[in-house]
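Example for tutorial group B:
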């Protein structure tokens, strides 16, 4: 039923000075509902991204057909009347049209007021995946997403340049975020080394990443642009064969080829045992490098994968909260193993 609504309405955008009721919003976005009153059942869904007011699942019966309609409403508050990245992404019609490996839930419409963006999307069901198991299909989906969105971005008129610039990863409002600045976590590592000899002296070793990451950041900045989802967590992927459902674009950026692969591997490294991570990494690399579009340089893409992987992995493994978690669970040998793996990448990067 939701797909039918989408095919009839498309992802339209409405602009309003004042908030309206949910029922009024639905009638405005979906005129095929007519003017009959709707009996809507609502439940709250998890939504912990920055600036998200709420995420809600709505269900009602279509007045004309009697069929059940289910959709999701996300409210994102605005800062200084500036619209959200996610709303801008959904307003870009046709960017990912023709996807064969990812299925993207239909956007039924976006309502913009001075204070919030309301995004209405199709509600999808399915199983939550085991992230290490989907390394290959995820690699295929990411390679396809990068190719489709790159062509879309390159075809945009000059009038769209300010919008794409504001969404670009290389803007101060993104680069200054803590999770892209691992060096601020080094004092916690130094303090750990004062009480645990296994970690003594590692602070200076990790400082070696700073010039190498600055070099890779400069190189990545000049590589092909594409849309990057950047939030490959279990909660954002749904197994609904034959394709993976990719949802929740709250972290979306105009990134670079390879960024999404690095984000996925960074999250895997953060959460899994080393043997599980290494196995998934091998499967991802093998599939992704083969599926990469021919107009992308494989060496550039793989360097960008490593760059984004390190930005995520370094921060999440060095932050004080992670150290405390491993201490409480008595898993410090695993943390040291992860540190050794990361530090082992420095010679490889130095020789590149």
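The residue assignment follows.
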């Amino acid at each position: 039923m939701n797909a039918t609504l989408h095919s009839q309405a498309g992802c339209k955008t409405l602009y309003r000075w004042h908030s309206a009721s949910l029922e009024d919003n639905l009638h405005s976005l979906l005129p095929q509902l007519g003017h009959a009153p709707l009996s809507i059942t609502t439940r709250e869904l998890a939504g912990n991204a920055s600036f998200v007011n709420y995420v809600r699942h709505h269900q009602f019966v279509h007045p004309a057909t009697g069929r059940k309609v289910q959709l999701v409403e996300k409210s994102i508050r605005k800062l200084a009347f500036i619209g959200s990245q996610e709303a801008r992404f959904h307003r870009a019609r046709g960017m990912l049209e023709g996807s064969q490996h990812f299925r993207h839930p239909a956007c039924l419409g976006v309502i913009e007021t001075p204070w919030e963006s309301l995004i209405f999307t199709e509600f999808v069901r399915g199983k939550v995946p085991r992230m290490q198991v989907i390394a290959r299909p995820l690699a295929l989906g990411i390679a396809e997403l990068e190719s489709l969105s790159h062509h879309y971005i390159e075809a945009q008129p000059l009038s769209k340049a300010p919008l794409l610039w504001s969404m670009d990863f290389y803007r101060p409002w993104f680069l200054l975020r803590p999770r892209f600045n691992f060096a601020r976590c080094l004092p916690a590592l130094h303090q750990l080394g004062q009480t645990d000899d296994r970690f003594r002296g590692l602070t200076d070793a990790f400082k070696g990443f700073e010039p190498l990451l600055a070099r890779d950041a400069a190189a990545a900045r000049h590589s092909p642009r594409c849309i990057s989802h950047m939030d490959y967590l279990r909660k954002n992927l749904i197994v609904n064969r034959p394709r993976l459902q990719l949802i929740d674009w709250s972290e979306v950026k105009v990134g670079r080829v390879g960024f999404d692969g690095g984000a996925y591997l960074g999250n895997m490294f953060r959460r899994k045992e080393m043997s599980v991570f290494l196995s998934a990494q091998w499967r991802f690399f093998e599939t992704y490098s083969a599926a990469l579009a021919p107009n992308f340089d494989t060496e550039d893409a793989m360097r960008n994968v490593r760059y984004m992987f390190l930005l995520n992995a370094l921060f999440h493994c060095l932050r004080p909260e992670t150290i405390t978690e491993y201490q409480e669970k008595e898993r410090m040998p695993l943390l040291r193993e992860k540190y050794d793996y990361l530090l082992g990448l420095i010679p490889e990067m130095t020789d590149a």
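The first strand starts at residue 12 and ends at 15. Compare this with the pattern of hydrophobic and polar residues in the output above.
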